[in-house]
Each structure stands twice: as structure tokens, then as C-alpha cells.
Structure to design on (248 residues):
């Protein structure tokens, strides 16, 4: 019986060589790295968005946000009263009305204003021509906590706000699983009814942080809604910038 230790005259110790390639070369495919997952991070600074700064216009998002009545289930938001919904505006540099609003988007390193730079845009509530009587609503694109790298990490909503003006209104932040919502259906995350620290349009922006840890479990899409209402006149330009949903 022929010896099984030889194959076509090749010693078994040489079977690892095929067409001149060593075993190391044949197995090279096994060293291809698998990309590591990244922490969940969704950041919006509005720099690619077209401005809409008049009282007769509203921002038309092209970054998957939804603005105005298109974000609302029904006609009203109705937190404190049935106020008809309007969309937020998109500003750059100062707002058109004097003695209200910021003078540019936020510099996230300092909280100061990023005027005439690539970070100049922001969304705000243009309250002229009696628009202070309305409720301003805009919502983020969807985020899914199931995309987190580690479900035990913190999940936060961070954003910057500027609220200078003698007739300033209030800001409310909601969360919901629906693409359209209202005060009855959405969950209120935070209330900012007494703005402080804004002594002029040049006052630094303030960063707010809201924990989303209660929403970390489950494979579910969520949306963040920004609502402003209860202003008393045209000096009521609340601004929001650098919205960040972040795992850390």
C-alpha cells in the first residue's frame, strides 16, 4: 500500500506551499480588520441651510428636520393655550429686529458669537408682525438609541440657546416616537420659562443638556421637538443652535 505521507511526491511538510505561496500568504485574508462601532452622535449646526429671516417666511429644511405645521398633529400645539403653529426662521448674523436675538450663531468653544464665519447660521423665532401670538415648532430627524455603541453609556441632548429680548417667550423641549405630534401626545423633557444671563444681543449663548437615559433601551425611533410660545411682542427672537444628540 502506498504511503499516505506523500502526495504526488511532495512531503507532507511542503503541502503548505501552493504555486510558490507560503501558508502565511494563503491565510492573509484572515487579517482584514472589522470596523469598530462608533458612539451615537447626531450634530446639527444649520450651515448648509438657506436663510429665511422675514416675518412672512419660515425656514424650509433640507437637512431632514421638519418645521412648522408639517411637524404637528393637528392645528395647534396647545401647551398653555391653543396657539396656531408657525415654523422657526433661519438666521445669520443679527436678526432683523433691533434689541432682540443674537448677533450670530454660536462658537461652541466659547459660547460667543460666530459672526461672518462658517458657523454663523441658527434657527430662531421671528416674532414681528404679530407672530408672537403663535407657537413655533420644529423637530429633529429620527434617532434610534439601538444605534448606541454601548447601551450603558449616557445619552444626552445638548443644544445652545440665546434668549435676549424684553418681550421674550418660553422654550419647551419634547420627545415623541411620532413624525408629527402635539402637547397632548409628546413627552415634555424640559421647560425654560425664565431666561437669564442675556443682557444684550452680544451676550454669550448658553448650552443646555437634557438626559435621554430613560430612552436608551429598545429598538425605537425618537424625535426631539422644539417649541417656543408666550412672547408678548416683536422683541422675542429666541435662537437655537448646535443641536447634538450624543452618546458618551
Amino acid at each position: 500500500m502506498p504511503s499516505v505521507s506523500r502526495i504526488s511526491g511532495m512531503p507532507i511538510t511542503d503541502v503548505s506551499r501552493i504555486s510558490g505561496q507560503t501558508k502565511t500568504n494563503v491565510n492573509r485574508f484572515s487579517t482584514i480588520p472589522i470596523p469598530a462601532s462608533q458612539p451615537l452622535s447626531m450634530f446639527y449646526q444649520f450651515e448648509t441651510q438657506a436663510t429665511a429671516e422675514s416675518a412672512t417666511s419660515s425656514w424650509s429644511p433640507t437637512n431632514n428636520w421638519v418645521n412648522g405645521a408639517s411637524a404637528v398633529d393637528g392645528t395647534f400645539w396647545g401647551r398653555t393655550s391653543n396657539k396656531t403653529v408657525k415654523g422657526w426662521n433661519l438666521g445669520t448674523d443679527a436678526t432683523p429686529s433691533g434689541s432682540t436675538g443674537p448677533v450670530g450663531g454660536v462658537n461652541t468653544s466659547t459660547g460667543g458669537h460666530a459672526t461672518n464665519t462658517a458657523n454663523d447660521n441658527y434657527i430662531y423665532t421671528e416674532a414681528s408682525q404679530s407672530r408672537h401670538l403663535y407657537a413655533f415648532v420644529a423637530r429633529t430627524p429620527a434617532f434610534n438609541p439601538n444605534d448606541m455603541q454601548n447601551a450603558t453609556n449616557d445619552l444626552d441632548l445638548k443644544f445652545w440657546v440665546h434668549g435676549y429680548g424684553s418681550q421674550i417667550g418660553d422654550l419647551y423641549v419634547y420627545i415623541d416616537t411620532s413624525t408629527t405630534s402635539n402637547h397632548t401626545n409628546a413627552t415634555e423633557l424640559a421647560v425654560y420659562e425664565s431666561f437669564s444671563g442675556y443682557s444684550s444681543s452680544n451676550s454669550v449663548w448658553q448650552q443646555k443638556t437634557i438626559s435621554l437615559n430613560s430612552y436608551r433601551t429598545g429598538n425605537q425611533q425618537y424625535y426631539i421637538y422644539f417649541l417656543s410660545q408666550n412672547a408678548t411682542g416683536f422683541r422675542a427672537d429666541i435662537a437655537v443652535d448646535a443641536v447634538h444628540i450624543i452618546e458618551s
User: Anything to note?
Assistant: The first helix runs from residue 23 to 26. The two ends are 68 Å apart (CA to CA). The first strand starts at residue 6 and ends at 7. The chain has one helix and 16 strands.
